[in-house]
Design a protein that fits this description.
This is Putative short-chain dehydrogenase/reductase. Keywords: Oxidoreductase. The chain is α/β, with parallel strands linked by helices and 300 residues long. Helix content is 44%, strand content 14%. The protein folds into two domains: 257 residues, NAD(P)-binding Rossmann-like Domain (Rossmann fold), CATH 3.40.50; 32 residues, no CATH class. It contains ten helices and eight strands. An eight-stranded mixed beta sheet has the order 3-2-1-4-5-6-7-8, sandwiched between helices. Helix 1 packs parallel to helix 2, helix 3 runs parallel beside helix 4 and helix 4 runs parallel beside helix 6. The mean pLDDT is 94. The structure holds nicotinamide-adenine-dinucleotide.
Length: 300
């Protein structure tokens, strides 16, 4: 029950759903938790911060330590206030879980500019701003106090972002970008600052999935047996990644659903053709492409 004793964790969008489950589980394992949530409506409209306060109350009643923060994670100043709140309350930050999210599903031909911008903002910018704020703190900390650290970033991608999903061009594009962002964080922060960076694509029954007519039946609670889509099934893996000394290689991406964790294999270069020290002609390409795609097979 004390895997995360003395660690400070920020969880964004932790007033509900998956983030709430992570925050409660982190606190049970001894972490001091900053529960961020702007208390937004399903489509990202501002609320009253109540869900974050409720989670903090639940953690404290169980004997844990937590504070609430109601900032918008996609707001530059707000994200800096969030990290500062952790430093003021607990003196440091060891773990940032970027989880806050919204949906505005619509087929591409009907999607509005606002629907595109809102989703890309909350997810992609909402990952960048808190990460940027905490990374600046980690760099300053490393300068003041060189030595091994074990800081952790856990970002939230999704199966739509990794494999595509009709009606979610905004969401899938942002989530795909987040998987790449996780790898970028690994490249820039792992060796230099000792930060491990991961992305997970969860599946769970939350307000988000229950709002989607396509998903609501699929994630329903069964009358008996293992409740595959309970958000609490995702938390152990997230808490394990966040724990000090966890050996999961930095820069990796996972799907986490029910009782299953899958490593997602990254983009790789496939078969190739070469023109031979000269620029391709269109006629040569006419000739060569069947060979290229023949080699690539189903992977193309
Ligand atoms: N539930 C799933 O099956 C599933 C699948 C794939 C990915 N995800 C991702 O998991 C994350 C959590 O989703 P969930 O299903 O728990 O949804 P949820 O709606 O239950 O919780 C998301 C929380 O984020 C908060 N939030 C939204 N915008 C915010 C902002 N700008 N700043 C601060 N807080 C904000 C909301 O108020 C809400 O409480 C999201 O990133 C989502 O895209 C979920």
């Amino acid at each position: 029950m004390s895997r995360l004793r003395d660690r400070v964790a920020i969880v964004t969008g932790a007033g509900r759903g998956l983030g709430r489950s992570y925050a409660l589980r982190l606190a049970r394992e001894g972490a001091k938790v900053v529960v961020n949530d702007l208390g937004g409506g399903l489509h990202g409209e501002r609320g009253d911060g109540t869900p974050a306060d409720d989670v903090v109350r639940e953690i404290r009643e169980a004997g844990g330590q937590a504070i609430a923060n109601g900032d918008d994670v996609a707001d530059w100043e707000g994200a800096h206030r969030l990290v500062q709140a952790a430093l003021d309350a607990f003196g440091d930050v060891d773990v940032l879980i970027n989880n806050a999210g919204i949906l505005r599903d619509r087929m591409l031909v009907n999607m509005t500019e606002q629907e595109w911008d809102d989703v890309v903002r909350v997810h992609l910018r909402g990952h960048f701003c808190p990460t940027r704020a905490v990374a600046a703190h980690w760099r300053a900390r490393a300068k003041e106090n060189p030595g091994p650290r074990d800081a952790v970033l856990i970002h939230t991608t999704s199966i739509s972002g990794l494999f595509g999903s009709p009606g979610q061009a905004n969401y899938a594009s942002a989530k795909s970008g987040i998987a790449t962002f996780a790898y970028e964080c690994h490249l820039e922060l792992n060796e230099r600052l000792g930060v491990r960076s991961y992305a997970i694509g969860p599946s769970a029954r939350t307000r988000l999935t229950e709002s989607s007519p396509a998903a609501v039946e699929a994630v329903a609670k069964p009358e008996a047996g293992f409740d595959f889509f309970d958000p609490d099934n995702v938390s152990p893996f997230v808490v394990w990644l966040a724990s000090a000394g966890c050996g999961a290689p930095s820069g990796t991406v996972y799907t986490v659903e029910g009782d299953e964790v899958t490593v997602v294999q990254p983009w790789t270069r496939g078969p190739r053709i070469k023109a031979g020290d000269s620029r391709w002609t269109l006629e040569q390409l006419d000739q060569a492409w069947p060979e290229l795609f023949g080699q690539a097979g189903a992977h193309a």
